[in-house]
Amino acid sequence: MRFKIEFESENGESFLMPYNYNHIIDSVIYESIGRFNPDSDLHESKSFKYFTFSQILFSKFKTIRSGILVKDGKFSLQISSPNNDLLKQIMQGFLKEPVITVLDFKVKISNIIMVKEPKFTDKMEFKSLSPIIANSRRNIDGKNKEWDLAPSEPEFFPFIERNLVKKYNKYYGTDYDTNLIKISSNLRNVKRKRISMKINESKQHHVGYLMDIILEGDPNLIKFAYDCGLSNKNSMGFGMLEVVKHY
After folding, report:
1. DSSP per residue over the chain, as a string?
2. For the chain, is the Cβ count within 10 Å smaller at the N or the C terminus?
3. What's phi and psi for 118, nearest 5 deg?
4. What's the whole-model pTM score?
């Protein structure tokens, strides 16, 4: 299930959104869950969160040195999850308190739209609505360190395939194999993005990629990728997909 949420500032005033806003939106979503379900422990869970959100889409904006100036105070984003109950909790939380604080300014929810689900087939092309991060570990100078893979590296797509199947099996309690999905790209529209995130009061830096991507195989896995997001850190707003075409 997927929703598009439209926001606008009070009185249509302009405001400044920082370039690295993922942790801000992430906090807004968890606050929304907490308003509807105060007993939720999703934020503290170390397991997969099974939701993702897109980059913000601005109506009228200007990029300046300190961030993104939202001229008319309007923006939107999409939130998606294979867990319909979780997504409904998020939406109910937003409806319960439609005026939220983002940094030091207030915005209100002007509209919530359910996005029509596409038909899923055994080969589909997507574009990423938020950067895809393939965050693996690599031996560097004798130390096991985190490393963000690039699409040009041979490990990139196999890593994403394994990650998708692992999440699917954990969510559904199945025993799918990675040979049921093949992920690739024509690498026509690849854009590298460096992202900073605040996690548990510490700052992390990652490199992700906006790109075209092809999923071929079991339609159940393809649908799960669409609902949950591809690769790492989906609940921080990474790996969200939008259908481009069916083959």
Report:
1. -EEEEEEEEGGG--EEE-S--HHHHHHHHHHHHHHH-TT--TTT--S----EEPPPEESSEEEETTEEEETTSEEEEEEE-S-HHHHHHHHHHHHHS-EEEETTEEEEEEEEEEPPPPP--SEEEEEESS-B-EEEEEEETTEEEEEEE-TTSTTHHHHHHHHHHHHHHHHHT----GGGEEEE---SS-EEEEEEEEETTEEEEEEEEE-EEEEEE-HHHHHHHHHH-SSS-GGGT---EEEEEE-
2. C
3. -75, 165
4. 0.91
Residue where a domain stops, chosen among 114, 149, 170: 114
- Confidence at 44, pLDDT banded by 50, 70, 90: very low
Q: Which of 99, 122, 121 is nearest to 109 (CA)?
A: 99
Q: How many domains does the chain have?
A: 2
Q: How far is CA 141 from CA 80, 138, 145, in A?
A: 39, 10, 9
27-31, 62-66, 72-76, 123-127: range with lowest mean pLDDT: 27-31
- How far apart (Å, rounded) are the C-alpha atoms in residues 114 and 26? 20
CB 176 within 8 A of CB 163: no
Asked if 51 and 83 sit in the same domain, the reply is yes
Amino acid residing at 126? F
Among 69, 89, 114, the domain boundary falls at 114
Position 7, amino acid: F
Give the model's pLDDT for residue 43: 45
pLDDT (mean) for 158-183: 97
